Amino acid sequence: MTQLTIVANIIAKADKVELVKAELFKLIAPTRKEAGCINYQLHQDNANPAHFMFYETWQNRESWQTHMGQQHLKDYMVATDGAVEVFTLNEMSLVANILA
Fold first, then answer.
1. What keywords are annotated for this sequence in UniProt (predicted)?
2. In whole angstroms, what is the distance from residue 7 CA to residue 53 CA?
């Protein structure tokens, strides 16, 4: 089983930044309790507060796919319907781990 890294970029509509941010915060606690979740971090761009990024690490793709079907993600989708301008998701694999 290979670990999976997810980089999800969410850009909220200008008038919906606080709504999207609040709903993204609601995902953190339940997701971190999920089986297979190693890391789940939310970031906000310093220059563009409408741009959020999740950096996630999962034990494997299967655990991430299970995550994608969870009720808290469905609730997020309903709550932010029409509030997100752009959403991109990248599934990535670690190719080097060099520590200084």
1. Monooxygenase, Oxidoreductase
2. 7
